[in-house]
Design goal:
Strand 2 and strand 3 form a beta hairpin. The two termini are 24 Å apart. With 84 residues, this protein is of the alpha+beta class. 50% of the residues lie in helices and 18% in strands. The chain has 2 domains: 38 residues, no CATH class; 34 residues. The chain contains 3 helices and 3 strands; from the N terminus they run βαββαα. Strands 1-3-2 form a 3-stranded antiparallel β-sheet.
Length: 84
């Protein structure tokens, strides 16, 4: 879910909403915000798109790295993920 001020609704995607992949609802905790909620159709789209997205990220970011740079990147990433 995404919290956005009502005055910033222009930033919330409209195309997914029109296609039934996203719905908006007022935030019950704070009326100044709107919640963007992924529908079942939206989640289906995420799942269908994920394999191609992963392949493209691998092609652009991982494959060009040498084995040493890849290992270094993994180590730095792991070190950052354990920070409190």
């Amino acid at each position: 879910m995404t919290r956005r001020a009502v005055r910033q609704k222009a930033w919330v995607p409209k195309r997914p909403q029109v296609k039934g992949r996203l719905r908006r609802t007022p935030d019950p905790a704070d009326g100044r915000y709107s919640l963007a909620i992924l529908t079942d159709a939206g989640w289906d789209k995420v799942e269908a798109t994920a394999p191609g997205h992963v392949a493209e990220v691998r092609r652009l970011l991982i494959d060009p790295l040498t084995r040493t740079r890849y290992k270094h990147s993994c180590e730095r990433s792991a070190a950052g993920s354990t920070a409190p």
